[in-house]
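Team,

Forwarding the record for the chain on the shared tracking sheet. I've put the sequence and predicted structure together so nobody has to dig through attachments.
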Amino acid sequence: MEDRERHSATECLLTRASLTLAAAIIASLTAPTLALAGPWDGGSCGSAGKWVVCKADDGSSTAGSGSHHADSASGHTSKRVCTVKKMDPQPPPGSMFWEGKSSKDGAVYERTCQNGPGGAPVHDTFIAETPPGAAPVDPAVVAQQAVAKMKLAGPEIVSPRATGTYIVGVPMWMWVNKGPTTYGPNSASATAGGVTVTATAKVTRIVWRMGDGATVNCTGPGTTYTASYGKQESPTCGHTYSRTSAAQKGRKYTVAATSTWAIDWQVNGGGVNGQLTETRQSQTQVGIGELQVVR
């Protein structure tokens, strides 16, 4: 009878056939006991891909875990034997925990089974795309959640001003303020399903639609005008109107500035990364008049 129990216990030992010697050494350090399975109430264990599956007497199965089922004769009550959690942080590239694989193949998980002598924990690690019962998490979706936290806005237009009147034929200088939410850089993180993504955003260009049919593309925030520049054109971002705004609604042109945000994101500790693009717009009104010569 004793031999049969030991034989059954050995068959249900929750371990991986491909467990490397190095991982076994680590397991022995974290749990300095022999990796022996405890008594089992029936059923059988076997490999099912990346998970060890144990079939109980009632025909149910659990991925990477086992259960003691209620038995009126033996007095056993149900309890969980194994727990699985994702390693945090994930091992660096090339670590022995990856077993020759990488974060593109999934993530490294740690399994702890209370099946050593006297219920002592036995540890092992494995690689899987998602833990059992968990829905896959798309890092790009988590990145969008991080972007939402940044509260990115359209350009904070300093010039042209909505007050006053500009003159036909005189170069207009355009520029914006560089704030975290209006120009960047801006960073935020979000977490979902055990996946944490950090995103960083900054404006790469601003497209100005001047209201007179002209479009001006600027790759920076623009140059701030000072009186010392006189009537010369802006070296980075400007426009010269050739007709007044008298025929426009409110006697002003509507100027729209649309910023393009380039967003780089990366999974913390996972090596998975990507890029997103967002656009935001701001508007202002500008009055354009003619210089009147008094004779």
